[in-house]
Task: structure prediction
Amino acid sequence: MTMNKSLLKKETADFIIARVKNLSAVHQPQWETMTASEMLLHCNSCNRQILEESRGNKKTQIKQYLLRIFALYIAPNF
Result:
């Protein structure tokens, strides 16, 4: 019986976190020819690409500028 691993499951997430915490620069590569540092950089760049893609490229609207000015400069003075 195989277990489907999902990072949404606490046991799987804890397992991955423990493996990452145990990494060091002297570990033997287990990901083809990548070192531990290169693999972490690869994972971070994949996550960054996924997260930034979901934000979209919408331009800031005038209402957003006005709300930002109100929240940062006008409201704190009350």
User: Anything to note?
Assistant: The radius of gyration is 21 Å. The mean pLDDT is 77. The chain has three helices and no strands.
